[in-house]
Design brief:
By secondary structure, the chain is an alpha+beta fold. The chain has one helix at residues 2-19, and strands at 24-33, 39-48, 54-60, 62-65, 71-78, 81-85, 91-96, 111-114. The chain is flat, with a radius of gyration of 22 Å.
Length: 117
């Protein structure tokens, strides 16, 4: 009897977790700019598929500095590395995470490929 009750509670818990999944639909994206006119991030507009409730998800980019300390680009973190963006938001390069060198150089940021147009 006790075992059946425990199984019933576990089954009910798994069903509740499965029903709690939220699915969002992509609507649009907007650039986020600072006072200097630099694109410092983007805002994704999403909609909950079940309720229709709109949701905003804001992603901020990390500034990339040169030797003098000036901002020359922005870095958007993505899965497997990052995307390097120009001050106007154009994609100009990428940084790939290289896991092979982590054993000998734990502070390694990865291989950076930058393409200037």
């Amino acid at each position: 009897m006790k075992r059946a009750r425990v199984m019933a509670v576990l089954t009910a818990g798994l069903v509740a977790v499965g029903c709690a999944e939220v699915e969002y639909r992509y609507i649009a994206t907007e650039s986020v700019k600072n006072g200097d006119g630099h694109v410092i991030g983007h805002k994704d507009l999403l909609r909950d598929a079940k309720t229709g409730e709109p949701v905003e998800q804001v992603t901020h980019y990390i500034p990339v500095l040169n030797e003098k300390g000036d901002i020359v680009a922005y870095e958007e973190l993505v899965r497997g590395g990052s995307v390097i963006r120009a001050l106007d938001g154009r994609r100009i390069g990428a940084r790939y995470t290289d896991l092979r060198s982590r054993g000998t150089n734990p502070g390694n940021e990865g291989v950076t490929v930058t393409i200037q147009r």
